[in-house]
Hints:
- With about 100 residues, the protein is mainly alpha-helical.
- The protein has 2 domains: about 1-35, no CATH class; about 40-95, Diphtheria Toxin Repressor, domain 2.
- The chain is built from 4 helices and 2 strands, in the order αββααα.
- It has a two-stranded antiparallel ribbon with strand order 1-2.
- A hairpin with a 5-residue loop joins β1 (about 25) and β2 (about 30-35).
- The longest helix has 24 residues, at about 35-60.
Amino acid sequence: AKQMHVSKPSVNKAVNVLKEQGYLTQETYGNVHLTESGRNKAMKIYERHTILSCYLEEVLNISHDTAENDACKMEHILSEETFNKIKEIVKSSQQ
């Protein structure tokens, strides 16, 4: 909560939602662990973030901080079709 500047109840609510969706397990008043599907979902989101921030920085010449912030917002709302086109552009620009 401190690191992300959000309230503890917000974190608790988010953890409960992720547990209900099968992405997390939690020991009673203890550590939180990703499930296999949680790990897969996290990896997919991380790939989207990485590709989008790369696209914004390297293709559009957006500053690093702005690219990171915008990628955080975009990674959750872009369609798979749009993301795949951006991914193709990034991959071709790196060759």
